[in-house]
Design a protein that fits this description.
The protein is an alpha/beta fold and 203 residues long. Strands 2-1-7-6-5-4-3 form a seven-stranded mixed sheet. Strand 4, helix 3 and strand 5 form a beta-alpha-beta unit. It holds the Pfam family DUF6428. InterPro entries: DUF6428 (IPR045534).
Length: 203
């Protein structure tokens, strides 16, 4: 099967922050294409092997306090992919099959529709990581989920604030100012007889 070439190199280079999809948006897109092959692109021009399994779907409520002293709370929905070693398959699973797995999960674990979606994947050439679904591209007989890596960010700076302050109002991430000790200079060129006179600097 031949799919159109997807050029995304500039997008990967320019990526600073990906706007995350919530679970409802992600699932609604799947529901629109049940008969297409579901593929995941984890790097430029690289698709997850068609023999992949969806091994589990995790829901992770997260609570944090950022460096500006603000509490944050959100939920992540993590879809884990696994490729069995030595297993071969010409075509990936249909979107409809993936949705049947979602149905099994949601009968036991109601998933937050506003949860942030991440796809977890790794293989022998690609360290396991969680990535955001960026674009969901219909290409011939496939729905391709284009994945992008997560990026670390400072929430305080993102709000236009500072990265915390101490009790003096100083920013916690500013370089520390260390006061240098004062050094008393001794005039070595002074006459020897003056060495031990009051104020001569020898004691």
């Amino acid at each position: 099967m031949i799919y159109r070439n997807i050029t995304i190199s500039n997008k990967y280079k320019a990526m600073n922050k990906i706007e995350a999809n919530n679970w409802k948006t992600f699932k609604d897109t799947l529901l629109q294409h049940p008969d297409l092959d579901l593929q995941f692109q984890y790097a430029e021009g690289k698709l997850v092997d068609p023999a992949y399994h969806i091994t589990e779907i995790k829901q992770a409520p997260i609570t944090s306090v950022d460096c500006g002293g603000v509490m944050n709370a959100w939920t992540e929905i993590i879809v884990q992919l696994w490729v069995p070693e030595g297993e071969q398959q010409e075509r990936s699973m249909k979107v409809g099959k993936a949705l049947s797995i979602v149905d099994i999960v949601e009968k036991m674990l109601p998933l937050n529709p506003n949860g942030t979606v991440k796809i977890e994947f790794g293989n022998s050439e690609f360290d396991t990581r969680q990535m955001f679904p960026n674009e969901m591209i219909v290409s011939e007989n496939a729905l391709i989920v284009d994945l992008r890596p997560d990026a670390v960010q400072c929430k305080a700076i993102g709000r236009g604030g500072n990265c915390g302050t101490n009790d003096k109002g100083e920013e916690c991430c500013a370089p520390a100012v260390v006061e240098k000790p004062k050094v008393q200079l001794v005039n070595l060129a002074a006459p020897a007889e003056a060495c031990c006179t009051p104020g001569g600097g020898c004691c």
